[in-house]
Write a structure and sequence with these properties.
With about 220 residues, the protein is of the alpha+beta class. The chain contains two helices and eleven strands; from the N terminus they run ααβββββββββββ. Bound molecules: calcium ion. The site of calcium ion (CA) has 7 residues, from loops.
């Protein structure tokens, strides 16, 4: 059996032993693929663009990542922001090593809706820097009118780095629908997304401060 197949066999066994729910297995495997990729992927230098399409937040029970309800009465009021991280993709969200939340781009703010459709595209270019790992960070809090915001969760959306990016936007295909991983590990909190990664001309490269958000 090839080395990669052995790795998958071990990881599958571990996932089953941990009793990871089927709904979360896909995200777990995405993360494990990412771990495998990070050990084998080469560094990438050049001008590339990642487009991250955030699809929807699924939170049927209206819970915070801590497991308590967002609000005593009524559904959550999610406020969503995101950041494409090329520089500190291995840092844990909320730690000093990770980007400050104030640098995240606002994505969506809704009231009284536990599971809103997002359907927004966030993009950022590498503009010549050397990268080995890309992580889309999504920060979700619950807005409260009378008190401070509660953390709903921090999600990490992992980009596979084992493939050469597409040559240009026209050739770039969207990935299949994937799930980002919630930091809390709460099983009922899910965030779905797709992405595509492609080469751009140096003159079209957007600097790191020009992250844009567009309707999908
Ligand atoms: Ca609230």
């Amino acid at each position: 059996m090839q080395r990669e197949n052995w790795i998958w066999l071990v990881l599958l066994t571990l996932a089953v032993c941990w009793r990871v729910p089927a709904a979360q297995l896909e995200g777990v495997f995405d993360r494990l693929f990412d771990l495998y990729d990070s050990s084998t992927a080469r560094e990438l230098t050049g001008h590339f663009r990642l487009e991250a399409r955030l699809l929807r937040l699924e939170n049927p029970d209206g819970l915070l990542g801590s497991g308590s309800r967002c609000d005593t009465v009524g559904p959550c009021d999610p406020v969503i922001s995101a950041y494409i991280d090329y520089e500190t993709a291995s840092a844990v969200a909320g730690t000093p090593e990770a980007p400050d939340y104030i640098t995240y781009t606002p994505v969506l703010e809704v009231r009284d809706e536990n599971s809103p459709v997002i359907n927004k595209v966030l993009s950022r270019d590498t503009c010549g820097r050397t990268i080995k790992k890309v992580l889309v960070r999504v920060h979700v809090v619950d807005h409260d009118r009378l008190s401070s915001e509660d953390l709903l969760d921090d999600f990490g959306c992992h980009v596979k780095m084992d493939q050469e990016p597409a040559g240009n936007m026209e050739l770039a295909e969207w990935s299949r629908e994937l799930y980002c991983l919630p930091k809390s590990g709460l099983q009922k909190l899910r965030l779905s997304w797709k992405y595509r990664f492609f080469r751009v001309d140096p003159e079209d490269c957007r600097t790191m401060l020009s992250a844009t958000l567009a309707q999908a």
